Amino acid sequence: MCLAVPARILEVKGDKGIVDFGGIRREINLSLVDNVKVGDYVLVHVGFAIQKLERKEAEEILKLWREVSEALNT
Known about the structure:
Blueprint: E1 5-13, E2 16-21, E3 24-29, E4 41-45, E5 48-53, H1 55-72
Antiparallel strand pairs: 1-2, 1-4, 2-3, 4-5
């Protein structure tokens, strides 16, 4: 099974970017997605942004992730 996680773009430096995964910052590769800018949301799989997301869609996915995490921790 493959897993992609939404992240918000904090910095763009050519084909590299710094993203925020709910407080965790990581450098990722942006070469597979066009026209990415600070504030955009992307799906990240194994260190690569694979798709740009609308903010509302990203927020809904992140909400569902939090619900799953809370359910697993109870």
